[in-house]
């Protein structure tokens, strides 16, 4: 494939900035948003489309693997046989890096729901309608295997921000990072879609590009919706920390899954909504 057809993470364009009534024309960077089609196949089943998501190009294989983990198609630690960009001759030049095919060695643990409409960069669950579809009975709630110091939690959003290279250039991306209980960053990813950023950090472990334990912390740059907790549940992550607040359904799932949720984490303040026993002094 010709690398010249690979979409970049940002694009340049001229803008007009108005400050105190004065207009200034200047070049600026905007974040790239492109569709990614995810195809899935296994022995006896040719690869077919299971989703189309709008994303920021980069870490596409991790995004595909993390998405399939979040959907229950893969279990934690399941390594796909292959993950590759599609070489379908019918694809146009600009589509070459916008289709990823995941091939499994065996049938998936759950048949993926085929999405007939694109997933926008703002949505997450997209059709998962109940807690029971996310919290599978074959997985127990997460127990408290480790605790985190109260001061560590408040530092995580700022630490994540220091690794948001594209956000610093464009101001238009979400981020997700996985931290250990001492506050050390294990992996961070950015994307125009907050759920895509989470799928990317999940996929990094799924494809064995990094490793982290269940008693790890997921930190996200936005609010804590049901979709974020659903992905943390699928990834078996013990804590979710965010600068925004959670929804009621997100907290109901976190209660069931044994996940500690901390919202409005800004400066020295944050609010613990579920399972405070994981945080010392709370």
Provide structural commentary.
The protein has 282 residues and is an alpha/beta fold. The longest helix is centred in the last third of the chain and has 13 residues, at 194-206. The protein starts with 9 loop residues before the first strand and ends with a strand. A 6-stranded mixed beta sheet has the order 9-8-10-11-12-13, with helices on both faces. Helix 6 runs parallel beside helix 7. The chain has helices spanning 60-70, 131-134, 150-161, 165-170, 194-206, 226-235, 248-257, and strands spanning 10-19, 22-31, 34-42, 45-55, 82-85, 99-103, 148-149, 174-179, 185-191, 217-220, 239-242, 260-266, 269-274, 279-280. It has 2 domains: 34-125, Ubiquitin-like (UB roll) (Roll), CATH 3.10.20; 148-280, Cytidine Deaminase, domain 2 (3-Layer(aba) Sandwich), CATH 3.40.140.
């Amino acid at each position: 494939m010709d690398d010249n057809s690979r979409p970049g993470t940002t694009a340049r364009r001229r803008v007009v900035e108005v400050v105190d009534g004065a207009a200034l024309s200047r070049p600026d960077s905007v974040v790239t948003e492109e569709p990614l089609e995810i195809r899935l196949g296994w022995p006896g089943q040719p690869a077919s489309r299971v989703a189309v998501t709008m994303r920021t190009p980069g870490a596409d294989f991790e995004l595909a693997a993390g998405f399939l983990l979040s959907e229950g198609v893969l279990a934690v630690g399941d390594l796909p046989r292959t993950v590759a960009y599609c070489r379908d001759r019918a694809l146009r030049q600009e589509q070459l890096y916008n289709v990823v095919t995941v091939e499994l060695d065996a049938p998936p643990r759950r048949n993926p729901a085929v999405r007939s409409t694109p997933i926008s960069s703002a949505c997450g669950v997209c059709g998962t309608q109940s807690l029971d579809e996310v919290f599978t009975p074959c997985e127990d709630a997460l127990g408290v295997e480790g605790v985190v110091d109260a001061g560590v939690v408040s530092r995580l959003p700022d630490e994540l921000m220091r690794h948001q290279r594209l956000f610093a250039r464009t101001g238009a991306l979400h981020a997700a990072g996985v931290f250990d209980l001492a506050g050390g960053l294990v992996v961070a990813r950015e994307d125009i879609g907050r759920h895509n950023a989470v799928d990317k950090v999940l996929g990094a472990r799924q494809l064995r590009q990094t490793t982290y334990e269940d008693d790890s912390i997921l930190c996200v740059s936005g609010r804590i919706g049901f979709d974020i907790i659903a992905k943390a549940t699928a990834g078996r992550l013990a804590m979710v920390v965010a600068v925004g607040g959670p929804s009621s359904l997100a907290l109901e799932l976190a209660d069931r899954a044994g996940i500690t949720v901390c919202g409005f984490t800004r400066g020295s303040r944050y609010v613990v909504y579920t399972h405070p026993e994981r945080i010392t002094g709370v």
